[in-house]
Structures are given as C-alpha cells and as structure tokens.
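Please decode residue identities from the backbone states below.
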C-alpha cells in the first residue's frame, strides 16, 4: 500500500523542501575568497568584516601575508594584533591554564553569544543596506543604468524560452504520446516517468544553453551585472528543475502517469505547494549568495539567513503536524490477531513520531545556526540531507517492492496451473529482501557521508585499515551467504512443492494415495547439507577477515573428526548405510515399507535413521545400520488377492460373473477407477476344505490405493452374494463319538441300532470331548494357514 493522500502530501512536501534546502544551504553560507571579502581598502563595508584567519594560521607565504596585510584597514589591523596577543598569552600559559572540555564549551558558547549580538546589532544598519547594494551594483556606472540589468536579464530569459519553445515544437509528437499514454502498473509508470523526465530536462537544457549563449554575447565585463544575472539565472533553472520533478511525479493533468496515488485535487494542491516552497527556498538562498558576492556586511547576511531559516522551519513543522495522523496510522499498521510486543512498540512510535520529527528539525536548525555563526560552514545541509535519506529510503523501498510484485506476477501468469500452486515464499521475497538490504546499506553510507564520515577514507589510514576491512569483509560475507542460502532454499522449496506425493492420514494402512518422488526424498537432506556448508564457509571467511588463522582450526577439526570416527563406528555405519540406501533409491518419502522390526510410512529421513509412522499411529525410528532387509509396498503396482468361503452347492460360474460385473463397475467409478491398473477378476476355486469351498479374486492397483478399493470390493460382493442367494460357509467340525453318534446300519432296525441312554454325567463328558476335538482341529488349520501364508500370498 502506498501512502494516503494527506500522508503523501506531507512527506513529499518535506522531501522537496529538504531537497531545495540541501541544494542551497551551502550557497548562502559558502566562503568567499579572502580578497573578495576584504575588497579594496577604500570601499565601503570592508572595515566591519572579520580578519581572515589565514593570517594567523601560518598557511600563507611571507609575500602573500604582506600583500594581504596591505589590504587591511586600521580597525582590522587592531583586531589582528589583539588576536595575536591572545594566542601568544595562551601559548605561554602554564600547565594549570590548559583548557579542558568545560573551558572549550564555555569558550564556544561565548563566541556564539558574541556572534549573535553582532548579528542582532546589524538591525540598526538595515536602512543603509539598500544604498550600499545600489552602489555595489553600479560599480563605476551611473545608478540610472541599473534598470539595464533587469532588461538584459529579461532578454536572456526570453531567448532561453524561445529556444525551448522551438525544441518543444520539434519534439511535440513524442511529448504528446507520453502525455496521452495510459500506464498500468508501477513498472510502466516508472518507464513513462523516466521518459517524461528526460524530455523535460532536455527542454530545460536547451533553455539553459540558449540563455548562457545570449549572456556571453551581451556581457561587457561588468562584474556586478554578471553576478546578478548568473545568480538569478541559476535560481530560475534550479527552480524549474524542482518543478519538472514535481510535475513528473505528481502529474496533475495526467492521472494515468501519476506516480503517487492521489486524486486530481490532491495532486494539484501538492504540486502548487511544492512550487511555492521551491520558489521561496531557491530565490532566498540565491539572494543571500548574491549579498555575499556584493560584499554586504556578514552580520546582515547572517540575519537574512536566520529569518529565512525560521520561515522554512515553520513550513516544515506545519507540514509534519498536518500529516501526523496519517503517518501514525501507517506506522501502526493493521492490528494482529494476537497482540505482540512489536505491535506495541510500533504503536508507541506512531503516537510520538511527529514530536520526534519536530524536535529533529528544531535541533538541525539550531545546529545549523550555531555552525554558521562559528565557522560559516553549511551545517544545515547535513541535517537536511539526512532527512532526505530517511524519507527517500522507504519511498524507494515501496517502489522497488511494487515493481517486483508486478514482475513476478507476470511471470506467474505465464506458468502452468501446476506451477502456480507453489508456495508464496518465492524468488520475489528473496530478491526483495536482498534489495532492501542493499538499499539500507546504501542509505547508511550516504548518511555517514553527509555527516563527514568517509568509510573508504578510514580504510586507508591507521587503525581504520584493519577495522574497515574487517567490517567490509564480514558485511559482504554475511550478505552473500544470506542471499545464496535464501535463493537455494527458495529453489529447493519450490521444487518440493511441485513434486507430487501425498501423505497417509491417521489409520490409513499402506501409506497415502501417492508417494513422493526421489527428488522430494533427497532434496530435504541436500538442503540441510547446503545450510551447514554455507554457515561453515561463512564462519571461516569471517574468522579469516578478523585475523584468525583458520589453517590450524581446519587441521584440528580433521583430527577431531578422525577421533570421532573411531569412537563412533556405529554412527558412521548408520550414516554410510543411509547413503547407500538413498543411492539405491530403496524408499522415498510417503512410501509404506517393512524393515522387519517395524513397518509403516516413511515420514522423515535423517542423517542416520529412518522414521516410520505405523498406520495405527506409533512412530518407529530405525537406524540405517540396523536394517538388514527392506520390503517396499509402494512401488509401481500392487496385486491384492481376496479369498471367500462359500458352501459346496455354490455355482462357481455365477460367482465368476458377479466378480466380473463388480470389476467393470469399479473401473467406471470416478473416484476408485483411476486407482486400478487391472480390474477385479475371478481366479476360480482356490481350495476345498472340510466345510467350505474357497474361491479367490484379484485386482491390480496403484500403490496406496489397494486398501481403499478392497473396502468397496468387500461391500459390493457381500451385497451381490445376498442378492443372488449365495451363502458364505462358516467353519464346522463334525466329531464322531463311538457308541453315541453311530447311525443305523442298512437292514438293522432302529431299536437294534440305538445306543443305550446316557446319564447326565456321560452326556456332559461327551460334549467336552467333542468340543476339545473341534478346538484341536481348528488350531491345526490355523497353524497350517500361518505356515502357508507366504505361499498363499504369492
């Protein structure tokens, strides 16, 4: 999200005002050569100027010092003599008179108060400023010729505008195409913004060249005229540069090319405010520079600059105050579902940010005034430059983020449906993070450079060589390691997301409805290996940058590795066995395997062990070295064989037709059909037992699908058998007890064949014997089935 209307207005206003102040803060307080400050000995205003410090610094030669002394007035010579005596007295003072920090602070405060009093004392001399300036502008000519300077300046401006108009006529078609363009997205807007800005700067360049050419044709050697014309011509050009940038960014008349999300009213309002700020700042600072060139009393110039600084600070404070609520909402952001410490800190900053910003502006204004009064250096430019950096970094971050989002969105639109299903943590996140890191580093370097801290200069002198080199190497190593790991991890994660394979749910026997590919099995291990490798290399490089000898460390690590290898042979065996299992592609993530001691779905693969999740829930961890054999139930295809016990009077052909019909129906099923490789079919009578006839059916399915299909096959067969009157045979055991269960022989009468009646005790004993015999027979059958289980399954 970009800033709202009021927020955008406030921040960009501050940015433009800061830009103007930064570009001109130095011009109003710039030093002028000593000869220009002093001027001719007989000129008005030279007696009140400060004595050049170069006379006391020892930087001038003897001839230069004599020449400069010859230009001084009596009052300046007296001041120079007093300064020399104070310096000599300070040099001859004893150890107890050496100034400390408090003395320096008091001396600085006294100098500031003195300069302040002198500046305020110039108020009484303001009535004489205009006559002095008129005399300086005339400079040997009659004052009635001064309007000719204005006429010459107007002619120069007209020549420049005429040349610019002709150039615009030549490029009007190109400009019209840009003006009428409809840009969709930040990337297109940036392109049109660059094209429009280049075209407008070319127009301005033509204006400047034509104006300068006419100026040199008209120039006749009058220095004050040259100062006035060049100063205000530069002011006009610089003012128009700010206007061009504002016009290109805000595009008040072309909403389709507007870089800032404002409506037409807001864009026009902000553009007009920027134009006003630029006009005040540019022409006030250029006027102060012209006053200094004309030799105006430095106290009057300081007074003018102070008034100008108060006006500009007031404008910035009002702008910050107007935008306090929108900026607070932006800093606070959306409330998370669960309150966090970060959100609370952001809330506190959002409540007081405008106070901090106003205090910052006030401190910079005070420091700039103190620095100007003490050293005449443009200290205000540093503070304004740092403010511009603070504003420019988040704006650039927002633009970069929007461009990357649009770029990768277009890339995703070109991919297939399968590829669009990857996780959101893609390359755009990595590139955005890397761009933000570079942006923050660049902003930090610019900020330090503005405040006079040159990192590269420090790296070439003294102790700074080692410190700066170490910081540079550590920073670059950390940045490259992070970017490399982020890119590799993203590529691996995206590939894992594209690989198929489902996981078994709780209670699903034999794995899920699909197994992972070999890449999905190996890539997680490779990702861990790559992470450890990158971290180890980064640590080694950092230690080397800090001056640590890594050779002995590597040798010691090798010795320790050998000792660990001898002391942990089982661990080494597990790792080596695991490597060969993976090379043999014995199993993959999501496959259902049986390793003898345990079975289940492969849930995780570590460096030394295999983690299996049984379909009933238990988690089994088996070291690779303990796996003697492995059975994989999830490769290629699976044959499922089903046995049914039916009575001896069952029609086998009818059973065969029932199986065939059910197989055809299941193959046509939308849910279960894709899981079949071969349909359900009958294999006829498999075995004949005492109490049942065993018929068998089979089908071939994809691994992991056979158990779901089996459930449906059982259900449909049970319903079909019931519908066609086919009965399932239950296990029966007939026990023959001599003398009790004999039947009558042919030719015998029932009376002759009937056994004598049994007492209750005898009947109970017969039942116990029969039950024991039946249990024995059933046990023998179960043992026989268990022994033949492998053969039966085959």
């Amino acid at each position: 999200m970009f800033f709202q209307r009021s927020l955008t207005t406030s921040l960009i206003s501050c940015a433009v005002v800061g830009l103007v102040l930064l570009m001109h803060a130095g011009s109003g307080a710039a030093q002028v050569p000593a000869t220009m400050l002093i001027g001719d000995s007989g000129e008005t205003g030279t007696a009140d100027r400060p004595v050049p410090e170069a006379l006391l610094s020892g930087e001038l030669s003897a001839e230069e010092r004599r020449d400069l002394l010859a230009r001084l007035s009596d009052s300046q010579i007296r001041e120079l003599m007093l300064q020399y005596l104070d310096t000599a007295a300070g040099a001859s003072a004893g150890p107890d008179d050496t100034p400390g920090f408090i003395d320096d602070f008091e001396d600085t405060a006294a100098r500031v108060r003195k300069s302040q009093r002198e500046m305020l004392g110039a108020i009484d001399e303001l009535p004489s400023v205009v006559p002095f300036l008129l005399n300086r502008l005339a400079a040997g000519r009659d004052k009635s010729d001064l309007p000719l300077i204005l006429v010459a300046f107007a002619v120069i401006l007209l020549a420049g505008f005429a040349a610019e108009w002709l150039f615009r006529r030549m490029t009007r078609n190109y400009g019209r195409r840009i003006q009428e363009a409809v840009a969709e997205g930040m990337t297109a807007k940036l392109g049109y913004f660059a094209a429009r800005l280049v075209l407008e700067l070319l127009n301005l360049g033509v204006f400047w060249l034509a104006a300068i050419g006419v100026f040199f044709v008209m120039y006749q050697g009058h220095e004050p005229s040259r100062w006035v014309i060049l100063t205000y011509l530069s002011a006009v050009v610089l003012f128009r540069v700010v206007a061009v940038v504002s016009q290109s960014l805000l595009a008040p008349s072309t909403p389709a090319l507007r870089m800032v999300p404002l409506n037409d009213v807001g864009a026009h309002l902000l553009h007009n405010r920027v134009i006003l700020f630029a006009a005040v700042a540019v022409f006030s600072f250029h006027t102060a520079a012209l006053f200094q060139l004309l030799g105006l009393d430095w106290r009057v110039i300081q007074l003018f600059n102070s008034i100008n600084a108060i006006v500009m600070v007031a404008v910035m404070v009002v702008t910050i105050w107007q935008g306090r609520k929108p900026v607070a909402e932006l800093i606070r952001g959306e409330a998370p579902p669960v309150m966090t410490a970060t959100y609370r800190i952001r809330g506190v900053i959002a409540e007081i940010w405008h106070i901090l910003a106003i205090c910052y502006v006030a401190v910079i204004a005070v420091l700039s005034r103190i620095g100007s009064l003490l050293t005449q250096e443009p200290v205000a430019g540093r503070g304004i430059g740092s403010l511009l950096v603070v504003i420019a970094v988040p704006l650039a971050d927002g633009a970069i983020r929007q461009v990357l989002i649009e770029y990768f969105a277009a890339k995703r639109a070109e991919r297939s449906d399968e590829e669009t299903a990857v996780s959101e943590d893609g390359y755009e996140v990595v590139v955005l993070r890397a761009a933000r890191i570079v942006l923050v580093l660049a902003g930090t370097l610019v900020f330090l450079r503005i405040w006079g801290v040159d990192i590269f200069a420090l790296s070439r002198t003294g102790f700074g060589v080692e410190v700066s080199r170490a910081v540079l190497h550590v920073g670059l190593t950390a940045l490259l390691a992070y970017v490399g790991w982020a890119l590799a991890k993203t590529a691996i994660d995206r590939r894992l997301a594209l690989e198929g394979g489902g996981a078994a749910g709780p209670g699903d026997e034999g794995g899920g409805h699909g197994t992972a590919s070999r890449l999905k099995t190996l890539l997680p291990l490779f990702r861990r290996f790559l992470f450890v490798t990158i971290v180890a290399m980064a640590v080694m490089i950092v230690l080397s940058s800090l001056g640590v000898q890594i050779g002995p460390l590597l040798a010691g690590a090798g010795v320790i590795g050998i000792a660990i290898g001898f002391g942990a042979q089982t661990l080494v065996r597990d790792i080596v066995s695991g490597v060969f299992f993976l090379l043999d592609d014995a199993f993959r993530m999501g496959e259902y395997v049986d390793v003898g001691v345990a079975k289940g779905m492969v849930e995780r693969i570590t460096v030394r062990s295999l983690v299996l999740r049984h379909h009933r829930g238990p988690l089994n961890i088996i070291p690779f070295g303990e796996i003697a054999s492995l059975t994989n139930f999830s490769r290629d295809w699976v044959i499922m064989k089903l046995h049914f016990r039916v009575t001896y009077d069952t029609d086998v052909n009818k059973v065969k037709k029932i199986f065939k019909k059910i197989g055809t129906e299941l193959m046509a099923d939308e849910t279960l059909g894709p899981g079949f490789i071969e349909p359900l079919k009958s294999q006829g009578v498999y075995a004949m037992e005492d109490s049942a006839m065993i018929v068998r059916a089979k089908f071939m399915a994809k691994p992991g699908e056979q158990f779901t299909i089996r459930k449906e096959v059982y259900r449909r067969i049970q319903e079909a058998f019931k519908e066609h009157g086919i009965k399932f045979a239950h296990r029966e055991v007939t026990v023959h007890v001599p003398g009790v269960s004999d039947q009558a022989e042919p030719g015998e009468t029932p009376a002759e064949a009937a056994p004598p009646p049994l007492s209750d005790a005898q009947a109970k004993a017969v039942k116990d014997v029969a039950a024991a015999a039946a249990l024995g027979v059933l046990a023998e059958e179960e043992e026989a089935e268990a022994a033949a289980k492998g053969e039966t399954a085959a």
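Observation: Residues 658 and 720 are 7 Å apart (CA to CA).
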